[in-house]
Amino acid sequence: MPKKTESILLVGVIAGLVGVLASFIPAAGDFIGCLAYIGAGMLVVWHYADKHSVTLTGGQGIGLGVLTCIAAFITGLILDGLLRALAIKPSWQEEMRQGMEQGGADMSQLGGFGEFMTSPGFVGVMIGVGLVFSLIAGVIGGVIGSKLFKRGEEEEKAQDSSDLI
Questions:
Q1: Which H or E run includes 127?
Q2: 133-149, pLDDT tens digit by residue?
Q3: N-to-C CA span, the chain
């Protein structure tokens, strides 16, 4: 089977970029980012299957989708960190504090929980949760892509007969 690296990196970097850009959209940004990761799982299957004229099984689609979403997650994490370092986005702690205040929470009433939500440990937990959701999105997108971009039997038979010539 041909190498998958090109498809994984191409689609992964694009999805990571879309996810970070979507984070600037209030309220709908997280939803759009989630759809970008599911779409990445589908797009990588399409790109790979189209480029190499192959049909992928559900398991192969899942593998491509998961690896692509890992690449997207790493890309997004690096870009997000860069934007925060350049002060284009607020720090994780400041973003959590703003979110709690917008939700009507009083930091003094939250006590230890409010302190935990603005701590580096919570940032680590959120990165872990984000990775898990990325993997789930990769599975979903990979399965959908492998079913959606399956080559027809007539096309496969024509390809097989042309390979014999």
A1: helix 120-148
A2: 999 999 999 999 999 98
A3: 20
